Amino acid sequence: MTLENLRPLTAGPRQSIELGSDEALRLLGSVSLGRVVFTQHALPTVRPVNHILDGGDIVIRTHEGAALTSRTRPAGGPGVVVAYEADVIDPDTHLGWSVVVTGYAHLVTDPQELARYRARLHPWVEQSMDYAIRIRPDLITGIRLVATDQPADA
What distances in angstroms separate CA 49 from CA 46, 147, 154, one per listed residue? Predict the structure, then answer.
């Protein structure tokens, strides 16, 4: 990338406003793409995935050979700790929001639930996605980036 390709900064100073849990989940539910973060070979791994919210839980679909599929356990087990991040940040103004949810991921094993998620959540890639993973939020954090001269509730 050359300096000619960089966009000029079009917004003034910004401030970061902390979001409450309810507002953060509402924003996360307003988009369909996020990033799931988990551990693979003792190192953090990030995968972009599409999602839905179901009763406050984040649900994603996955496939047999996926790294996260092999790490999750049925709902009766402790699950695996993951983080899930979604955001909308304007590339020109650098204003928007970001939400991070940390919790336990479990493989969905109930056939009726799995069928419901297959009907509601359509993967963006051409690949068989026969599994669903539910992330139960334990910690929900979020920020809104606003111009310093803009009201915090904008």
Answer: 10, 30, 28
